[in-house]
Write a structure and sequence with these properties.
Oligomer: heterodimer
Radius of gyration of chain A: 20 Å
Radius of gyration of chain B: 21 Å
Distance between the termini of chain B: 29 Å
Number of domains of chain B: 3
Number of helices of chain B: 8
Number of helices of chain A: 4
Shape of chain A: elongated
Strand content of chain B: under 5%
CATH topology of chain A: Helix Hairpins
Chain lengths: ~120, ~170
């Protein structure tokens, strides 16, 4: 139970908070989607960290090895990565449409236009 | 290094640079996944995260322009919220079982043990991740493809409604 055993999780939290900050503080919509990506990756790292065993190897069965990392988080994250790309593709195409409708992708300018209607 | 790249992403104003940095970030996280023994995840992250997403992002930027408006340097309220949330989460990690121990509950659960011990002769596949993905959790994977299909239909619908016929083809999903 040393500080080292939590270092990985704290690192995940730092990444997660960077992504969160981008999401709430930056006005640019493309930047927000990048922030969402950073947030997602931090969650992936959290799951993969949970599946790791020190001294283990990748879960590909072989007679030379007996300790394997947990395969289940890997499978879940494989699914999550692909779904994440699908969501960012959808988000980016929404950004393209917003750019066409408003002529800008800055959040505050869009809010101003909406109020002046 | 991953954290540094993420911080640079926050600071950079030019969105093209941001897109390229996102690619670098994905590649770095892929190496990190390899270190954590998740080779299949690293493959996917490198191909999908660093490849496809960068292409999607560049395609979008070519349509919306790459200049970001100047921002005030640091915004206090969001920073405060983020710091407080981060500290609460760090407090929460104190209850998580320590990293890398073989007797963590996740490794002792019967599904994990079953996958590692039985999957070899139940599916005939040495790679456990593949056998779980395609066989034990096949419905999950089918649901995933449904999600991708829905996203692709959404993207196509959004892009087909555009007035001028530009190069919307950069965004045709997976």
């Amino acid at each position: 139970m040393s500080a080292l055993s939590f270092l990985n999780y704290w690192f995940v939290i730092i990444l997660m908070m960077v992504g969160f900050y981008v999401l709430i503080a930056q006005g640019n919509l493309v930047k927000k989607i990048v922030g969402l990506n950073i947030f997602q990756t931090s969650v992936f790292i959290l799951y993969i960290s949970a599946g790791k065993i020190t001294g283990g190897t990748a879960p590909i069965l072989d007679t030379q090895w007996s300790v394997y990392s947990n395969p289940l988080p890997h499978v879940l994250i494989l699914t999550a990565i692909v779904v994440g790309v699908a969501t960012s593709a959808l988000g980016l195409s929404l950004v393209v449409r917003i750019k066409e409708a408003y002529g800008t992708i800055e959040e505050d300018e869009i809010a101003q236009m909406d109020e002046s209607l | 290094m991953l954290a540094v790249t993420a911080l640079i992403v926050v600071r950079t104003q030019n969105l093209f640079a941001v897109a390229m940095l996102t690619g670098i970030y994905s590649l770095l996280s892929a190496t990190f996944f390899t270190l954590l023994d998740a080779v299949d995840v690293a493959f996917t992250e490198a191909a999908v995260g660093a490849g496809v997403s960068t292409v999607l992002m560049l395609g979008t930027l070519s349509l919306v322009g790459h200049r970001q408006k100047k921002q005030r340097t640091v915004q206090i309220v969001p920073l405060l919220i983020v710091t407080v949330t981060g500290l609460i989460l760090m407090y929460g990690t104190l209850d998580i079982p320590p990293f890398g121990e073989a007797d963590n509950p996740i490794h002792l659960h019967e599904t994990t043990v079953h996958y590692l011990e039985e999957s070899s002769h139940e599916t005939g596949m040495p790679n456990v991740v593949t056998s779980v993905l395609a066989s034990y959790r096949g419905y999950d994977t089918m649901g995933e493809t449904t999600v991708i299909f829905t996203a692709m239909v959404g993207v196509l619908l959004l892009m087909s409604g555009r007035k001028k016929d530009g190069t919307g083809g950069a965004d045709d999903g997976e």
